[in-house]
Design goal:
- By secondary structure, this protein is an all-alpha fold.
- Helix content is 65%, strand content 0%.
- The protein contains eleven helices and no strands.
- The two termini are 41 Å apart.
């Protein structure tokens, strides 16, 4: 009886639209289907062999997704050079930024490229998602890729936010101060948020304290923002980008719903 119930639940889940939007099909264990499974795996076959003609038209896509990816590559390239001269501590952070800007050859060019590419990436992500929404490209069977895109939007905003603090100037200090003060009101996680006090959250163990590594915006916050901005978030974004590109190609391109 228990086995039958499990099979019924499994059948309901696998036939649901949500499941089909994530997993295209199942393959039996045969030599041919093993080959087909490779073409359905993002890590084994990033570019499927078939692409619809309309998916490449500029009039439908605006190329906002491609421009966003190009800006991401510019940010990675310029960010690596910025890391060569930067120390994430309160003594050297602002000094290193000024040294890079005024003493390093072409340093001001690289720093401005990094800053303006970051601003433009936020804009192009919003335009890209606006295009997807207006053309109905989020509809079945593409809803899973829409969710992946939302995660990429959040990562883009968080990358921009964490980069603010790395300059260690007044703008970055107060931006992070205001942002982390808002985190105190997070439900369950902030000591000023709903149910936070009931769960034992205080100013010294809530989400704001975890983000800053202390109770004030200091050296610990600078180091944590550096790790998030330069390592954790870019790696996460690359993984989600790979899945996003793969699913876009598998779902028939970017021109609209099937």
């Amino acid at each position: 009886m228990l086995t039958e119930q499990r099979e019924k639940i499994k059948e309901i889940i696998t036939k649901s639209q949500v499941y089909k939007s994530i997993f295209r099909r199942g393959f039996e264990d045969t030599p041919r289907n093993r080959f087909l499974a490779i073409f359905s795996n993002v890590f084994l076959h990033l570019h499927p062999p078939f692409v619809k003609r309309h998916a490449l038209k500029f009039t439908h896509s605006w190329c906002m997704g491609g421009i966003t990816f190009l800006l991401f590559l510019v940010l990675c390239f310029t960010g690596v050079f910025l890391c060569f001269y930067y120390h994430p501590d309160k003594i050297n952070a602002y000094r290193d930024m000024k040294y890079f800007e005024y003493d390093v050859p072409f340093g001001v060019v690289l720093r401005n490229m990094h800053r303006w590419a970051a601003h433009l990436m936020v804009i192009t992500v919003w335009l890209h998602m606006t295009r997807v929404f207006m053309t109905g490209s989020y509809k079945p069977p593409r809803e899973f890729n829409w969710v992946v895109g939302v995660f990429l939007l959040v990562l883009t905003l968080l990358l921009s936010f964490t980069g603010y603090l790395l300059t260690d100037d007044q703008l970055g200090f107060w931006a992070v101060t205001v942002g982390t003060n808002m985190a105190r009101a997070t439900p369950l996680l902030g000591h000023e948020g709903p149910f936070g006090e009931q769960l034992g959250a205080t100013a010294y163990n809530d989400i704001r304290f975890a983000l800053l590594g202390g109770s004030v915006v200091g050296g610990n916050a600078l180091l944590r923002a550096y790790v998030w901005h330069c390592v954790a978030m870019p790696v996460t974004a690359i993984i989600f980008l790979a899945v996003h590109f793969w699913r876009t190609r598998k779902d028939g391109g970017t021109a609209g719903p099937l």
